[in-house]
Write a structure and sequence with these properties.
- By secondary structure, this protein is α/β, with parallel strands linked by helices.
- The strands form four sheets. A seven-stranded mixed beta sheet has the order 9-8-10-11-13-12-18, sandwiched between helices. Strands 2-3-1-4-5-6 form a six-stranded mixed beta sheet. Strands 15-17-16-19-20 form a five-stranded mixed beta sheet, sandwiched between helices.
- Helix 3 crosses helix 4 and helix 16 crosses helix 19.
- The two termini are 41 Å apart.
Length: 609
């Protein structure tokens, strides 16, 4: 059956793999994504998986786009339906004229099949049973057979795929021959039984994906772990929690490679799994107070437990870096689904008056850059700093420009060394503000007796002495507030990726939600509707955020949460913006689809559009 699919064409289509969690499909699916990327194409790869260990449905989606879009498009052109329990439901998401591949060892009755899509019968179970005697390997090898089938159907570079398979099994050489055999079996079966699809992958840009200036395909958690390494971080206190654990795994791997003396085996780092998140942030604050660069990685439930210690870090003015890979809440919520719903708790964590720096990276390159600089900001402003990522940005692969670090030099902030302390006239005043920027000078333990002081979370004067004097308490709190005004002038400015002279409204985004905005604006522009785009990258907000919003008639704030938390922050910090702000909330736990975003914009602004 030949069906026309107007949405799919060479180098422009969407593949979705519908699998069972725990079936070993993830590595095979990623091979396809990496191959298409290495062939020179822009892709968006999204893994949507359940929180159980195995048995439930999981989906992996690859978007190929010659226009450079990486967000989810909406709709599927090729469905690889490996989960027998969800085939009919998965088929519903196919575009008219789409293609569905399924395991026809148990055929689907004709009366149950969608008649406006093409069904390709692939007897995967039977092929695996016939060619592989080891019953334990058959399920896993079915994924590699399917990889071979897709190689032929989509005209992928077979040599490149073989290289990628060989690289994947480099450390498990005994498994390589059988996987190559399964891959070749799939290639042969497709050549003998199927025609190439009308949408496929060309290979004109493959040479651009090699060399030191080539783009990268990596996830944000790995990029942040690498950034922490380059920043000089040597201490990590943490407690396992999805979706942050892979950041610690990556940091551990990097440290074993680069922070271990290969002659003596001495480890020049400490990664400590604490008994809970309370202990983890306590370890980080203790190590930072001693002068180490220390961090933790967690998610929403961990932030909830850390709040008292975060208030201590704010008031005692101790550096710390917290990587918050956000997920759905509240409570356990949906731990393997995506949200950006921790903004308010992180911005004002702890009881009493407090405010914390938050940084919002949008891609692997910024995850790397901001992770490095977060340690500088934590020490410069002597305070906890949150790097606010999320499951989508943290765990899904994305295209990144090469990571650059050659010019980086750590900024330890206002630290007095032995020489400065010896030359100090009068007593050392830990919490004084001689420069008027709100930031005091600090010392490290054991450097010089003249720099000693008490670090306390109770009321203290400029010398760190205990006090309950209300005037001194107010003086200290005003000074701490002043340093956040300094930070607002020095943290990353907002970016304006898209602007148009005819536009009088702006869509404001931050983090992973930003990748869908470019495409949504282009879709609206095709209908003669113009929007500007501002991407916020830090809190406290730069004055440029307020000033630009005041030039607009409407400000749509894209929030991946129910309550419009970024819009709340903007109203709280800049009350004059309240009449302009329109929350645009998407919070189903899935990565944003550009077409969904367009529909919601039209609903929110019918008169203007």
């Amino acid at each position: 059956m030949d069906l026309e699919n107007p949405r799919a064409e060479p180098d422009n289509f969407v593949i979705r793999f519908a699998n069972v969690n725990g079936s070993g499909s993830a590595s095979s699916n990623a091979l396809i994504a990496r191959c298409i990327f290495r062939m020179g194409h822009t892709i968006g790869a999204k893994n949507m998986f359940p929180s159980n260990i195995q048995g439930f449905p999981t989906w992996y989606e690859i978007r190929v786009s010659s226009q450079g879009y990486t967000a989810r498009r909406g709709g599927v052109d090729l469905m690889v339906a490996m989960n027998g329990q969800t085939i009919l439901k998965d088929a519903e998401d196919l575009e008219k004229g789409g293609v569905l591949i399924y395991d026809s060892t148990r055929p689907i009755a004709e009366r149950l099949r969608r008649q406006d899509v093409l069904w390709l019968d692939l007897p995967l179970t039977e092929l695996a049973r016939r060619h592989f005697p080891d019953s334990r390997q058959r399920t896993l090898l079915q994924n590699m057979i399917c990889t071979g089938v897709l190689c032929r159907l989509l005209r992928l570079d077979e040599t490149l795929l073989r290289e990628l398979i060989s690289g994947q099994y480099r450390s498990k050489s005994a498994l390589l021959p059988v996987n190559i055999k399964a891959f070749e079996l799939g290639c042969r079966y497709a050549a003998e039984h199927f025609k190439c699809l009308p949408f496929y992958v060309t290979s004109s840009g493959s040479g651009e994906r090699l060399g030191e200036d080539a783009p990268l395909l990596m996830n944000g958690n790995t990029a942040m772990a690498l950034g922490a390494l380059f920043a000089g971080a040597t201490v990590c206190g943490w407690y396992p929690i999805t979706p942050s654990t892979s950041l610690i795994d990556a940091f551990s791997d990097f440290c074993q490679r680069y922070r271990t003396d290969h002659d003596s085996g001495e480890k020049k780092y400490a990664i400590i799994q604490a008994e809970d998140e309370i202990a983890a942030i306590g370890m980080v604050l203790g190590a930072s107070w001693m002068g180490a660069r220390a961090f933790t990685a967690t998610s929403g439930p961990g932030i909830s437990l850390m709040c008292e210690f975060l208030g201590y870090g704010y008031y005692a003015e101790i550096p710390a870096v917290i990587f918050n890979i956000q997920r759905c809440g509240p409570s356990t919520g949906m731990p393997t689904r995506n949200q950006q719903a921790d903004l308010l708790i992180c911005a004002y964590a702890s009881h009493g008056d407090s405010k914390h720096i938050m940084i919002f990276p949008a891609g692997p390159d910024e995850c790397f850059e901001f992770a490095r600089k977060a340690f500088d900001w934590a020490e410069r402003y002597q305070t906890p700093v949150f790097v606010m990522s999320d499951l989508d940005a943290g765990m899904n692969d994305a295209i990144s420009p090469p990571l650059k670090a050659a010019s980086f030099a750590p900024d330890r902030g206002k630290v007095l060394g032995m020489q400065e302390l010896e030359q100090l006239q009068g007593p050392f005043l830990r919490y004084a503000d001689p420069d008027g920027d709100g930031i005091p000078y600090r010392t490290l333990p054991g450097v010089h007796q003249k720099g000693s002081y008490f670090t306390r979370g109770s009321g203290h004067d400029r010398a760190g002495r205990y006090t309950e004097d209300g005037a001194l308490y107010q003086e200290n709190m005003r000074r701490i507030a002043a340093k956040f005004k300094t930070a607002a002038r020095e943290l990353p400015e907002p970016l304006f990726p898209l602007s148009h002279e005819s536009a009088s409204s702006v869509i404001i985004s931050y983090g992973s939600g930003s990748e869908a905005v470019k495409e949504a604006i282009d879709l609206l522009k095709a209908d003669g509707i113009y929007l500007n785009h501002m991407r916020i990258r830090a809190f406290p907000f730069s004055a440029r955020v307020r000033d630009f919003c005041l030039t607009q008639d409407r400000c749509l704030v894209l929030d991946l949460n129910r309550d419009g938390q970024m819009a709340c922050l903007l109203r709280n910090e800049f009350p004059e913006l309240a009449p302009l702000l329109i929350p645009l909330c998407l919070w189903d736990g899935l990565p944003v689809q550009a077409e969904q975003l367009v529909r919601d914009i039209r609903t929110l602004m019918p008169g203007a559009l």
